[in-house]
Amino acid sequence: MLRAASFTLRAAHQSRLAFSQGCSAGARAFSTANTDKVVTATVENFDEHLNSEGLVIVDFTAEWCPPCRMLGPVLKSVVPENGGKLIIVDTDDSPEIATRYSISSLPTVLAFREGKRLGAFVGAQPASFVQDFMKKY
């Protein structure tokens, strides 16, 4: 019984590892193609990106968060296609930014225009939801 449980846990870990590596590779490939519309922010450059012209979508995320890994590729595709700019904030690397906006759940997505907060949603959502969210603003 113990051997079977160990095998199952090992298989589950390998499956998660393969999934996360696949997601990372896809994100790297995408980010090199859309560097002006999808940026990873730091404390030093966040305000500059936030005050960009047009609709700015901020994705508060973390590598260890499964719903964040589900939502990330959706945002990276939908936001630029619909004329927005996506700012990705890793809350482990930049907790000060998350604290500024009282982020308590991940993923949290905020919409801004001209530096003013317009709306938000929490949790992984399908592309159609993200498109409708962007159309509001």
From TrEMBL:
Residue ranges of coiled coil: none
Keywords: Disulfide bond, Electron transport, Transport
SUPFAM superfamilies cross-referenced by the UniProt entry: Thioredoxin-like
GO cellular component, one term: cytoplasm
CDD domains listed in its UniProt record: TRX_family
Molecular function in Gene Ontology: protein-disulfide reductase activity
Gene3D superfamilies: Glutaredoxin
Domain Thioredoxin: 21-137
UniProt-recorded name of the protein: Thioredoxin domain-containing protein
Organism field: Fonticula alba
Top-level taxonomy: Eukaryota, Rotosphaerida, Fonticulaceae, Fonticula
